[in-house]
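Researcher: Please generate the 3D structure of the following complex. Treat every line as part of one assembly.
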Amino acid sequence: MSFQRVAIVGLGLLGGSLGLAIGRALPDCATTGFDADAGVRARAAELGLVGRVCTTVAETVADADLVILCVPVGAMGAAARALAGSLPPGSIVSDVGSSKRRVAEVLREALPGVTVIPAHPVAGTERSGPDAGFPDLFHNRWCILTPDADAAPEATARLAEFWTALGARVEVMDAAHHDLVLAVTSHIPHLIAFTIVGTASDLEQVTQGEVIKYSAGGFRDFTRIAASDPTMWRDVFLSNRDAVLEVLGRFTEDLTAMQRAVRSGDGDALYALFERTRAIRRQVIEQGQDDARPDFGRKDH
Amino acid sequence: MSFQRVAIVGLGLLGGSLGLAIGRALPDCATTGFDADAGVRARAAELGLVGRVCTTVAETVADADLVILCVPVGAMGAAARALAGSLPPGSIVSDVGSSKRRVAEVLREALPGVTVIPAHPVAGTERSGPDAGFPDLFHNRWCILTPDADAAPEATARLAEFWTALGARVEVMDAAHHDLVLAVTSHIPHLIAFTIVGTASDLEQVTQGEVIKYSAGGFRDFTRIAASDPTMWRDVFLSNRDAVLEVLGRFTEDLTAMQRAVRSGDGDALYALFERTRAIRRQVIEQGQDDARPDFGRKDH
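Model: Done. Output below.
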């Protein structure tokens, strides 16, 4: 195996799952872990998320051949600066952040001369914290690597091999393209879900009790997405601003067209869109990206 | 039991589930069913969705003490006119439509002198058609009755008893308030989901293949909602126009505020919203309106 000692900085849903996944898939690989929160460190040790929980980031990375930063995107710079002086020569630094252009800049700046291969496993749940981790999180999920044009291909290949061993499917992509694709498939859906849940709970003529009571009509699916970690998502939107604003502009145009169709009673325009979106769902199911059971098997029928 | 012979007009997800639910919970109640589509009638007979599938709507309702219209909201008027001449005296007409003000008007106009108690079971899945029906659909779900101010309280009470027997929890509400509450909890979430799925598949710099491939980051949840029946939803938006436009206006305002926060880098505004929406999710779970397993148990961990 290409890495013998992996250091994980940040032991929440992603870092914890990563430690557990390595423990299961690569039992010969030693793992160390650090979290800035002492309570999280204690819990991570109890749960055995990594082989050894360290009390300083320097100790965590001192011996590592791969360091993976699993902190919110806005904390990447500080985390990288904290470990810069302790990195052993030849080690590779990567991350799991949901936006890649800004993270690459920040890591390059904090770690001059270090091999940095940014990565984004497209996986997660609405839970966060060390108790949310589980070893299957990356299984059959895509992990997108966004090396710079001048990154050593061997380093990218080693990291790809590592993620493949954890059950992920690896793609290599330009960071800017990653940020646009993820703005569409993840960031804008989250921003919209956060917003509609806020709108619903604000509407004075409708009580919050009613919003919750009748949420099975569609709203509850948005509340799940809108339960995701606030710090992580704040940082995603701030760090992927350009792509988020571009896609949001498109969405707003399309929503305005739908609003006009509702106002003018243009049933054909509505029907044409609804037919088209149904076909996309079929492809999501066919490509194994979702559970085909109605309501995700909520009722187990 | 208050009803002995129930006629179901429209044998899709709702009508089929209703027939199956009656068959299980009220075995002494005879059911007849009709669908305008001969293929659906044949399939409904094969599946045993109702006791007897009829070839005309007149035959279906001839003997019924309760008639429930399970057709798209836009087809309610035509369905009501078709059965008006065949209704036995004293029978009650109800429906399962997702908007109530317009449906009440249409039914009142088509059925002068008939006792009409509009109803909306807040239940469904993304599937449609006779094969989508299952007897548990209404179990523990809310059913909202919206009788006119001058409706006989006994008729409302009988219908409430009927839905309670099928496992639903019954609320009585003013039709206009229903339409606003459902615009918030169901109609606008659906309109937004349909729109974002359309936006994503249109974005030229991102291929449709990539949108599907990376949909596990949030987008896939929207595709499920956007797979719902196109005819049903077209009619919902057209028939609940005023409430839909009002809530959509609020949502657009809130989204514009979020857009401004992203553009200006106002992380505190983003964080404050995300914290608040997380609390709403907890209430949805606590009130039993959703499955608490992460990702709805998609990975069964």
